[in-house]
Design the sequence.
């Protein structure tokens, strides 16, 4: 019905907000690590690899949710290809 259509739009806006939050946090973290004297970001290779190994691997439920979100976004792009937020999300 029509209520599920509205719920999908809400979920997509929530996904966009979450994406923006994660991106903002990543950019803040990178800017905090920037070397103030040269303006370049310094990355500790050993620490970076350690942080990658500590990442949690997604379980099948999370992967299913990601695939569902991708399918919803593809549907938005296919339905209204001139709607920019659908492409950005």
Sequence:
């Amino acid at each position: 019905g029509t209520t599920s259509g509205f719920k999908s739009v809400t979920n997509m806006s929530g996904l966009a907000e979450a994406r923006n939050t994660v991106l903002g946090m990543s950019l803040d973290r990178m800017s905090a690590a920037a070397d103030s004297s040269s303006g370049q970001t310094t990355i500790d290779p050993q620490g970076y690899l350690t942080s990658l190994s500590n990442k949690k691997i997604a379980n099948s439920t999370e992967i299913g949710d990601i695939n569902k979100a991708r399918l919803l976004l593809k549907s938005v792009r296919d339905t209204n290809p001139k709607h920019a937020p659908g492409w950005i999300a």
User: Anything to note?
Assistant: The chain has a mean pLDDT of 74. The longest helix spans residues 2-32. The radius of gyration is 18 Å.
